[in-house]
Amino acid sequence: MNIHNARPVVLCLSGHDPSGGAGLQADIEALIAQGCHAAPAVTALTVQDTVNVSDFRVLDREWVMAQANAVLADLPVAAVKLGMLGSIEMVETVLDLLIDHPHLPLVCDPVLRAGGGGSLGRDDVGYAIRERLLPRATIATPNLPEARILAELPEGTADQCAEKLLPYCENLLITGGHGDEYEVHNRLYGRDGTQQTFTCQRLPGSYHGSGCTLASALAGRLALGEALPSAVRSALDYTWRTLRDAEQPGRGQYVPRRLPLDFCS
């Protein structure tokens, strides 16, 4: 019998991507790589490939509540990661779950669009995430286009978006992968006025699931007890390596290689 101490558990509330590039599969692989146990609760089903998303369906509230409550009642959850929610109703569902667990670190990845540009949220889901979930998040991890949607600033810079969003969120990591600078600038902002920029080499190509990978890795580092600035750096470094080693399994974007080739050998 295996008597090793259990790995930290991270509850993931995210959508399912049948291509395996993003969503819950990305969460699971990234968390395994951090030495954590992923407990995935499905919030939505999508029709997508490595090129783009063509449709999605948000699950019923009762199904999502039942999945998450089964995990929370049985496993010692150490952190929560939010991915695709897809509707205002799902935002409210997740909020109801979180109210009973205010002590858990919460990483909110405001998934609003797929890498190919297709929408992954109906109605005013971005507004609902900003108003209802960001105040409960330990950190939110939007890319710049998502930050602009949340901040309602179509042409805003990262600094301008942060100024608009920090009244809602304690910490904000705006990633810079959608820019065109030689180096990627990932900016961490704190409500207390602190700011830190993490730079890395920009890699060629576009990637499917990089945001899910980063947010899940960050949730894993927090579940392991790592302090926030260090956890951000660890998650960014890990994500960059998965992109450096990415593969192109289909006709579209590259998929991060989140686990080593010899993982199961």
What does this structure look like?
It is a single chain. This protein is an alpha/beta fold. It has a single domain, classed as UDP-N-acetylmuramoyl-L-alanine:D-glutamate ligase (3-Layer(aba) Sandwich), CATH 3.40.1190. It is 35% helix and 21% strand. It is built from eight helices and nine strands. Strands 3-2-1-4-5-6 form a six-stranded mixed β-sheet. Strands 7-8-9 form a three-stranded antiparallel β-sheet, sandwiched between helices. Helix 3 links the parallel strand 4 and strand 5. It is globular, with a radius of gyration of 17 Å. Keywords: Kinase, Transferase. This is hydroxymethylpyrimidine kinase. It holds the Pfam family Phos_pyr_kin. One of its GO terms (molecular function) is phosphomethylpyrimidine kinase activity. Pathway: Cofactor biosynthesis; thiamine diphosphate biosynthesis.
What's this, in brief?
It comes from Pseudomonas duriflava. By secondary structure, the chain is an alpha/beta fold.
Itemize the secondary structure elements and their pairings:
Layout: E1 9-16, H1 23-34, E2 37-48, E3 53-58, H2 61-74, E4 77-82, H3 88-99, E5 106-108, H4 125-133, E6 139-140, H5 144-151, H6 158-165, E7 171-174, E8 183-190, E9 195-201, H7 210-223, H8 228-244
Parallel strand pairs: 1-2, 1-4, 4-5, 5-6
Antiparallel strand pairs: 2-3, 7-8, 8-9
Helix pairs in contact: 1-7, 2-3, 3-4, 4-5, 5-6, 7-8
Distance between the termini: 21 Å
Instruction: Please count the helical segments.
Output: 8
Which structural class best describes the helix and strand composition?
A: alpha/beta
Oligomer: single chain
Uncertain runs are: none
The CATH architecture term is 3-Layer(aba) Sandwich
Extended strand count: 9
Strand order of the largest sheet: 3-2-1-4-5-6
Strand coverage percent? 15-25%
CATH topology: UDP-N-acetylmuramoyl-L-alanine:D-glutamate ligase
- Count the domains: 1
The helix/strand series, from N terminus to C terminus, equals EHEEHEHEHEHHEEEHH
CATH 4th-level superfamily:
Ribokinase
CATH class: Alpha Beta
Helix content: 25-40%
- Largest sheet features: 6 strands, mixed
Rg value: 17 Å
Cα shape: globular
Q: Can you give the mean pLDDT?
A: 92
